Amino acid sequence: MPEQHPDQRLIEGLTHNDYATIKEIDKKYRAILTKWVLHNSGSREDAEDLFTDSVLAIFDRISRTPPLILTRPFSAYLMGIARNKWLERLRKRKKEMQVRNDQIKRYIDEMDESVEEVIIHTEKVFERNRQLEKTFVQLSERCQQLIDLIFNRGMDTSEIVQEMAFNSENAYYVRKKKCLDRWRSLLHA
Amino acid sequence: MQADDYQLIDHYLRGTLDAAGEQQVRARLQADEAFAEELQFQQELQGFMQQREKRAALETQLRQLQQQPPQVVPMRRRILFIAGVAAAVAALVYFAWPFLMPSSLYEQFNQHQPLALQERGDLNTLMTEAEQAFNTKDFELAYAKLQTLTQQQDTDVRARLALGIAALETDRLAEAETIFTQLRQGESAVTDGASWYLGLTYVKKEDWQKAQEILGAIPAGTFWAGKAQALLKQLTSK
Lengths: 189, 238
What we know:
The complex is a heterodimer. Chain A is mainly alpha-helical. Chain B is an all-alpha fold. The interface between A and B is large, with 43 and 40 residues.
């Protein structure tokens, strides 16, 4: 079994929204990524969005199972995710596909097959979370509140019935089912 | 799927089923594909909702850091700068070492995570002002804003925790102690954080025994336990 890389501490920090970790990641990698995007048909704004989305993608992956264990440096994952995302964005803009990797070459060189696998999984999770967020905010305010109370606040049924003024527990279950069905249909639309 | 199945899943996800109920779920998972899909879907939503606030806070923090543009300094200037800084640090260390030490144990540990109260899409001026004041360490202003905010929305435990921190930073120690004690006794996402800050309040009051007691009770394996252990190590020499 491959050994855990010392950069795993950055994963632990991100899990807990540790500000020192976030600052460290920002300080170490944002400037490099910005320089690379500016050399590859992007603007500073593009670079900032790309950096944010890449870190958020790693956060999304951390939140899923199985746990993310780094076997290579954190930079290999971050830059690999960023590179894929940027290629995808250029593709959508129908821009020339040739990108220069000079600025991030040393990070890309640190990748191996296991990193590639994590990156592909991370992209899927990020995309799924993007869809979940996009569709969640399309639900009615009452559904959003109900779902938040159930899944996030961990309130028990009787508390929710009281908080949201349902007539009975049965009314709560009916409403919950309707809200989840609506969310599901938005996801499949 | 039957009507009862939704109740069964609801209880399963809350962890309120007894052994027989758990067994019933396992059996249904084996036998009923629609049941298994529904449970998996709700588990995914639960995971997503539990991380949603943290994710929004991370995005806020990253965007705030981006307001400081990355500096690309030419190598020659960088070398000169580093040499200058090294010389200045050497001189400073030589002449002013005693003054460079943190003036108190409290100051070694009072780093706070940035405040991100607003959910994505919110536009609450008072929250924005409170966040800005807190994140720029203007704790007197943050205290005033957070006090107004918590009077309006006393259910937001993150705002209550931030108010406690602002009180602690502005030497309103009795008030900080009350806020952290209340939050610590409740069941919320900030319980362990409140314990950490209650411990830190006692550090500031130099009540080492109470600080040790509170910090030592933070459950192992949590983020705050790591910080508490580091502080406890220093407290043992007191």
